[in-house]
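Sequence in, structure out. Go.
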Amino acid sequence: FQSRYGLIDGHIVEYGRLSIYATQIFVWLILALQLARHVRRGRVEITVQRITASLRQPGTQAYWLLVLFIAWTTISLLWAGNQDAAIRQWFLLVQGAAIASVIATSAVRVRVIAFAWVVAAAFQGCYALYQFAYQHIAPSTILGVAQQLPALSGVSVVQGFDQRWLRAYGSFPHPNILGGFLSLSMSIVTG
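Output:
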């Protein structure tokens, strides 16, 4: 499931699109449930004393740096060249930061998260091998994947000996992101 809309100066541009995927709805559902859990336990109270006390704890400095970064990006929306596109990208940044904070504060052990990451990487790797072997990426509204063919311009390829070889995308928007994801996964496996 996906819903897409967006133009910049009358032209369809990927960064100008508002795309809502089923996985994003799932993430916001998790965030809403986590917030409801904190409200029910009475843990939403934010005071200066709590903030200063939390800054003394070893793991919370990174959290507050993230909060400052989100605050700075929020302020930077004021001078963005295209505020619609900036707000859409800011929304994705906030979503990522929120889910990272949920993971960091959850009771789930690091081993479970690492195992889930490696399993996801195994699926991505298999999907990428399939894409490279068949030199075709079929469109999927469920996965949010656009069709990619090596003969089309704008598609990421390796060109040599008068042939264009499609680079594997996995379910990511670009092969470099797939490469980064798989590299991080290898670090988790070997670490």
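Check: Strands lie at 2-5, 18-21, 157-160, 163-166. The mean pLDDT is 81.
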